[in-house]
Design a protein that fits this description.
Layout: E1 21-23, E2 31-36, H1 38-41, E3 47-53, E4 58-64, E5 68-75, E6 78-82, E7 85-89, E8 94-97, E9 103-106, E10 113-120, H2 124-131, E11 133-134, H3 151-157, E12 160-164
Antiparallel strand pairs: 1-2, 1-11, 2-3, 3-10, 4-9, 4-12, 5-8, 5-10, 6-7, 6-9
Length: 165
């Protein structure tokens, strides 16, 4: 188990474009950028990154078995449905989502919706890599593509539950 001592004396600075990035399949479209992981921080209790949800896209409803998640929106507008209740989000809107809290992120605008995500314990970065396609910063978006055929198995293996569109 990671402890705060694992992070003592460590600093990681990443600039825009640093770290792996993955195009995401339908229905989210957009892309994720992985920033902090146990591999680059030496701290095994947290990972973080950014996710851009394309106009009209959404992240399917789901919950996490044993992870807490924090979301901070900083570009665009949309809404997050938490346990059936819809909450508008705009730059500065912040969510804390404990284990077993069902949530869906919806970009019902005509512009990208961008958020910072932090999750503990880590693992979301592996999910993005598994279902996505490698992305180079600045490259044009590919045509929308389907989730892998085994996405439900992948989601369950990675602790996602209550999954729906």
């Amino acid at each position: 188990m990671a402890t705060i001592k694992d992070a003592a004396g460590r600093a990681v600075v990443l600039q825009p474009g640093d770290g792996p990035s993955y195009w995401q399949p339908m229905p989210a479209n957009g892309f994720s950028e992985i920033k902090l992981t146990p591999e680059n921080t030496g701290y095994g209790a947290l990972s973080s990154g950014f996710q851009t949800i394309a106009a009209g896209g959404h992240i399917r409803a789901h919950s996490h078995d044993e992870q807490i998640e924090m979301l901070v929106f900083f570009r665009g507008r949309g809404r997050v449905v938490v346990d059936g209740e819809s909450h508008p989000c705009e730059p500065g809107t912040t969510f804390f989502l404990g284990p077993h809290v069902r949530h869906q992120i919806i970009n019902d605008s005509d512009a990208d919706l961008v958020m910072l995500w932090m999750i503990s314990p880590p693992g979301l970065e592996d999910f993005f890599a598994t279902i996505g396609r490698p992305r180079s910063p600045g490259s044009p978006a590919p045509a929308p593509f389907a989730r892998p055929d085994d996405v439900t198995k992948v989601e369950h293996r990675m602790g996602f539950r209550d999954i729906g569109d």
